[in-house]
Amino acid sequence: MTDKTLHIVGGGMAGSEAAWQAANLGINVVLHEMRPKVETFAHQTGNFGEMVCSNSFRSDDDEQNAVGLLHWEMRAAGGLVMASADANKLPAGGALAVDREAFAEHITAKINAHPLISVEFGEVSELPTDGTWLFATGPLTSPALGAAIAAETGTDRLAFFDAIAPIVYADSVNMDIAWLQSRYDKGETEEEQKAYLNCPMTKDQYEAFIDALAAADKTEFHEGETAGYFDGCLPIEVMAERGRETLRFGPMKPVGLTNANGPENKPYAVVQLRRDNKLGTLYNIVGFQTKMKYGAQTEVFKMIPGLEDASFARLGGIHRNTFLNSPTLLDDQMRLKSRPNIRFAGQVTGVEGYVESAAMGLLAGRMAAAELLGRDLPPPPFTTAMGALINHITGGAEAKTFQPMNVNFGLFPPLDGMRGGRKGRKERYKGYTDRAKDDYNQWLDGQI
Known about the structure:
Elements: E1 5-9, H1 13-24, E2 28-33, E3 56-59, H2 66-76, H3 80-87, E4 89-90, E5 95-98, H4 100-113, E6 117-121, E7 132-135, H5 143-153, E8 158-164, E9 167-169, E10 179-180, H6 190-193, E11 196-201, H7 203-215, H8 236-241, E12 269-275, E13 282-285, H9 294-301, E14 312-314, E15 317-323, H10 326-329, E16 335-336, E17 339-344, H11 354-372, H12 385-396, H13 425-445
Parallel strand pairs: 1-2, 1-7, 2-6, 7-17
Antiparallel strand pairs: 3-5, 4-5, 8-15, 9-13, 9-14, 10-11, 11-12, 12-13, 16-17
Helix pairs in contact: 1-11, 2-11, 2-13, 3-4
GO biological process, one term: tRNA methylation
EC number: 2.1.1.74
Organism: Celeribacter marinus
């Protein structure tokens, strides 16, 4: 009799989602997690689904945004990650942001309570030769397991560096200078419209801040390491190096905001902080991932008007992200071609972002469950957000230049007869999402 147990390595969002999906299809799941026995640089707890960077799942607009469409698809499939996000969401304008601690606690409780999921704590450092396995070890794959993967694939691990933004205690922000407002007053409620703290800068303050970023002590890379950043998570000082005005057109853009402490004063630049927990006691500095050393961070960030006396719950940092060259290594079932009993899911496959990682866990969990039940589950159509992503990482991308990718409409097959360019974008995006929802529902209806 074939063992119908699925072993999943990694209790992040992808692993937790995969476990949830497979167990709900009647498969016994063993979830292996090395934390808290083996710690990582970025994690603070041993909870499942812990968020280590931003607390935002980005746009929740399922008609005009590819990320929002991915939210919709995951909800339609009974996704644990989206259910946990919805249960612990915070005001964030048009974005979906969550209380990170409550979110992880919710996922942990659901996993621990599921009758078909058991948890084993400890590091898995080899690729098993038998059994059905799914590796969702994420960007912080342990060195030992990374070496085992590299030995199996015959290639060096691909890696880039990812940076974490600092978190500030809300009661240490000077509200005589800062004010509460979402950009363009986005949101249906007053709470949503005031989801961000805004710290204004004059031109002189901005120029001094840029100079301080350039001069600050920064984390050095170890000998032999190369720094290839993912553009969606660049350290702020790296952005500043690309031009003195880069930040003013990026995370510090002053548009869509009116200074409540002096409406006549038009800021030259604005630093935004987004609520990080339900109590509203913690705020993270939006887009301020950094590789500055801790001492330099406190000095430089206290130059921001309103943060002169700021207290930090967590300072920023930098860590190594590991991912596979998936177009050459994985089939369209996310199986390792050289060892079909092993699947990969999540950020280690070369998708970027919480939602994308969890979505790949959802797919891998369902595919593994179908296989154990003796059935075939084809990938979703390429016209859907999930289908576009899995197509990209398992063959649609150019292997020689493969880099982590967020979901975006550029991955979708074109729509016939739709107008191109910026002027036709709203109609075109609605066409993409309408088509995707129809095709995704048909894919779901045809399943187990």
